[in-house]
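User: I'm writing a tutorial on reading structure tokens. Could you give me a worked example: one chain, its sequence, then its tokens, then a sentence or two explaining what the tokens reveal?
Assistant: Sure. Here is the example chain.
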Amino acid sequence: MMTLKPLAQAIRTRGVRRGLWLTGSLAAVALQAPALAQNAAPQRAIEEVVVTGTPGGAAMRKLDASFAISTVSAEDIKRKAPSSTADLLKTVPGVWVESSGGVSGANIFVRGFPSGGDADFVTVALNGLAVYPPPTLSFLENSTLFRVDETIERMEGLRGGPNPVYSNGQVGLTTNFILKEGGPETEGVIKYSTSDFGLQRIDGMVSGELADDFYYMIGGYISSSEGVRQAGFDAEEGNQFTINLTKILDNGKINLFHRATDDHGTWYLPVALQDTGGNPTGIDAEYTQVGAANRNVLVPITGPDGMGGSQTTFESYDMGKGRGWDGSITGGSVELDLNHGWTLTDRFSLTSGAANTYGFVPDGPAQTMGSLNGGSAGTNISGDAVAANALVQRIGPWVVEKDVEAFSNDLSLAKQWDSYKLTLGYYASSWEVDEMWSIGNAKYYELRHNGQMISPDSVADACQDFDQATCGFKYDVDAVGDARENAFYMAAETYLGPVTLDAGVRAVTRETHYSVDDGERDGIADLVLDTKEDKVTYTAAANLSLTEDSGVFVRINDGVKFPDFDAYRDFRGDFLAGSDLIIDVTQYELGYKLSKANYSLYATGFYNETKGQPFGNVALNDFARLETEAMGVELDGSLFWGNFELSLNGTFQNTEIKSGDDSGNKVQRQPDSQVRLSPSYNLQFANGVDAIIYGTASLIGDRYGDNANINKLDSYEKLDLGVIVNIDNLELQLVADNLTDEMALTESDPRSAGVSANGRYILPRNVKFSIAYHF
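And here are its predicted structure tokens:
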């Protein structure tokens, strides 16, 4: 029976100092220490092993890592009960998440890096490779392509550190989701979930052994609901199926997996907070414009080749589909110990599918019907009366359809000596997009749930008439793109007593072809891009072990973010004037690590500089390149005191724009402080019944909705509460999100300059209940 201290020493020696292959990472640790499962506190404080941010994905102790990385276990995911993949990322320090847009299409920000939305500096990876190499295209960020369910073993969140050298070279955050692999014993779970917003969901997972050292895991879910902001129909529908096969060899392992997903939900957008007179609209966080009666809309599509270019047709689209992902991710890995200190690792992944966006997007403030109609009442397109004092708003039914495909392969060869290790690697990826946009096209609608479009006869505005195709801001796109990246990387580490030195360098070549026909889609491309860029990135660090359970590290890295397929932002303005649009990022980190049996603390100070992030207004053809800097500290800690546990997740930062008209201002949409305290208490009852009462208190600081720092978004507090009861093999869970129904804004309207009359609320209070049977 192995105790904690020898186990930690074994991991250090086998996974780091001698470079021997660590079978199954955390699974191997669990198999070697079964007695730990009988003691809740030590089990939570077990030596954690990570594979993200290491050359070739080699396993190492989290305590030995010379970079900032957080781990989120399957148990932690269960307690969080996230509303989306992006919602789960709130558990990672240094990350600000706006998950108020629904199950897809979040805005995620990292360490003060400047961004106008989506997730420019976030990569979501599955088993070590990005689900899509570019972190963001307009209306598509990585978390849209991934759903969390019972098949996930854990998530690892790496900020900065060696990120710019490995995998897709992400300079910001890499969240790596690790699939369950199965083991000698057959086990699984079947779970039913419901909620106060009509959720009906069934999850299942089973794993076991097919033959000697050949394991399987199969799982997935099927789900439907009206959505937290109830639409009046099943606005959120999804299903997912995953299979993972693992063969353990005498000198390694082979893994293959396939994950098919079809999941979408309403796209929640900023809502009118006040009308043109400055009067509150009374709209709350439960509001959504889309409903059963208005979800199907005719959208203008500018004619393609053979239709005269300026001709316009109207096609019906369902705004109720919102945003989602209908596609698959297939991949695997080969890990081999070649003897004499040599190891070979190859990881590969193929992603293919459609990530579409449909939704009602506000355009300007609310106003009364009478203000559009000489003070009189009006009618909607169904012929129903609309009172003169009823609120209306210009709203655009936006359609963005994207078919994407990507293939990635990461091959590495490592040699371990007694006092140092060398890794050579080759990363290759290619990806494509085929997209169609019709955005803008705003018409006046009744400002209410299920609100109908106002009849053209009731509005003195030619744009309200469907015969008028080009009024106001309208942006049509028909685009195709393909890109290829080849990168060679080298990493080395050496051990000098208690000091470990590591460094890595990456030489990357990116080739991009992108053809965009916007405006009148006449078959003549308005923008044709063919670029080839070569860059070198690097990282270096020193890690000092102070004691067996504490240490410090210092790190520097220098990386880049290439422009991606983005007709809306990247390839406009400055690019047409000759800029390469490459964003340069330099980061410095100083970290302290402490991990005891009953408490742990990981604190990382960071400072970064970015140069070249494009910001602009497409409608006004006004663009700028920003330079910014940010500094701060991230805290990730846990305390175990008998049956009581307390987790801390904190970020304190100061950001500053260093260029242009907004110089001296704070970077938009990111708080200077965010703290999450998560206490829990274990209760033991007779007959083997036990329970856990837990919660999270989130304290979020002020933010600004724009770089001009005009729209201030006030600080807020949010409380979540849950309880889990275990009765033999049954598990019951009740969780309340936003228990006090806090009315707070995550953003103002990113499509309006100056003071905005629109804003998006955090999700309102909602309650979920689930019952699971474990076997």
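What the tokens reveal: Residues 4-774 form a domain with the Maltoporin; Chain A fold (CATH 2.40.170.20). The radius of gyration is 26 Å.
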